[in-house]
Description:
- There is one protein chain.
- By secondary structure, the chain is mostly helical.
- It has a single domain (7-113), classed as Four Helix Bundle (Hemerythrin (Met), subunit A) (Up-down Bundle), CATH 1.20.120.
- Helices cover 81% and strands 0% of the residues.
- The radius of gyration is 17 Å and the shape is globular.
Amino acid sequence: MTKVGxxxxxxxxxxxxxxxxxxxxxxxxxxxxxxxxxxxxxxFRSIEHLKSVMDAEMAHIRxxxxxxxxxSFHDQKAKVDKDYRNYLSGKGADAYSAxxxxxxxxxxxxxxxx
Length: 114
């Protein structure tokens, strides 16, 4: 029987974090892709569809992000959330750039946790 704290107990947790990290990175990439398309399209149907995709990806990022620890990771996730809300409220190119940058930084945090 494995005692809590034995080495055999940790690989399961580590494997779970790696799985969550890969999933979170995939959702960040999907959000970036939808964001880039949303930023250049003028077709109303495409805009509605892309907004729903971005909303879904943000929901996934928020949900999966709860599995990670560390204040700097959660601070960065909060920045992404704030930038996303700013972008959708029409803050323009600055909000777009900030969101893009903060999503990239969030992905960097994920790579550091591997």
